[in-house]
Amino acid sequence: MWGTRPSDLLRVEDDYVGYCLDQAVGFFGTFIESELEQAEERVRARKGKTRESAIKAARMRVLRQYGIQSGATEARQFADPALMM
User: What average pLDDT score do residues 19-45 get?
Assistant: First the structure.
């Protein structure tokens, strides 16, 4: 799934805790990827010509919804914990 495990990057020494962290990060990453793909599919399902800028904007909305910033120039926001349930 990734080149370096998150537990290695954070230098987690306990094997079980590292495993749990890696699983949680993997789950969250897969969840976000799924949300991004769904946003892109909704844009492509619209009638008419699909522009790449509309797809990019839809993907950025998903990232902002979960509090993931794509650039330092954007205003900071908090993620809504209820969205993860």
Answer: 93
